[in-house]
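Morning run. Coffee first, then this:
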Amino acid sequence: MDKLNILVAIELIVVFFSLFLSCFLLTVKTEHKLSNRLFASFLVLTAIDTSGNIFDFLNEGPSNFGMFRNLMIFLQLPTFYLYVLSVCFTDFRLKPRHWAHTIPFLLANLVLIPRFYGVNLDAKLDFLQKISSRPEIQFNHILLHVQVICYIVAAFMILRKSRRIYLENYAGASIASLNWLFQFTVALSIFYIIALAKNIFKFTAYPEISEWLKSGLIIFELIVISWYLFKALNHPNLFRTVDSKLKLVKDIVLEEGKSELAPVNENAYNVEYLKLKDYMSDKKSYLNPSLTIKDIADDLGIPVRDLSLLINHQLGQHFYDFINTYRIEHAMEILKDGSKSKVTVLEILYEVGFNSKSSFNTAFRKHTGTTPTEYRKGLKNSDL
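And here it is:
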């Protein structure tokens, strides 16, 4: 089996996995239908882009459809970016203004109308024979490179903002999901950076390097799609989102003016802090795994804005870490209780408000410098 046939076989696997996962996302029962539809669209576009060797294997000669298929790559990252928005923010909706993301795709096709789409087969062949020197192709490559950089940066900015909003307002397990989406975006960024390098080498004196990178990209794409498929099948409701209308504390501080916060409202914050401490001790609301800052603010009769400033600004601690501190201290009390020595670590983490072992271990190590299991062993050894 020659190299081309091997690549076609790998492409077929990637296309199958992409389409299989897209069907799964479109049919699985979930509250996050928009997110699933957007990612399914991204996977279909990925399958179309990956099928280059398959398309060339089945067709002879250039065609308008073949060029149009190639240029659909301009829709991939905009679709992924919209997917990231839908995952991060619960109130995200597709709006007419989002059609602006198709502008690069339309431009890339428009510049090819005079000398490719609108000419006969012989003219198409002549155009492709000197494709690397054609200004239309050079324009499209520059446009694609700029698009990739802009959307990758924008995706990371959205993830960073949503993570900070989550830490300041929520105390559930979604942070692990946001971290995983960040990892997937990193993997996707690496893929596109290698793809850009491939395109650059394509127009140099070393086109063979471009071909090797192309082969490596197909294999890398198979690994990434398989990774996502594994995650999706095991966690069909992977993400919980945050409210995009929530403001970061640093923005609230800037709005109100830093000089006004400390001296003017110090007494009020002291009163609110005492109320908060008594509330946490009496109500033990931190045992609620899906607790939000709004839940506590409603119970205390304090505006969410003021409570957020108290915890995230005055106390210098994210709400997420603030709540986890109470959870870890409660877990430590259980671990110290000799009558509960038979209670497993898994049972303890659920009892104190966590709903994943990884987030519990991370928070416990951050608070104590050790894992729950090591902490319990240390207590036993000290009693001997």
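Residues 287 and 352 are 5 Å apart (CA to CA). Good start to the day.
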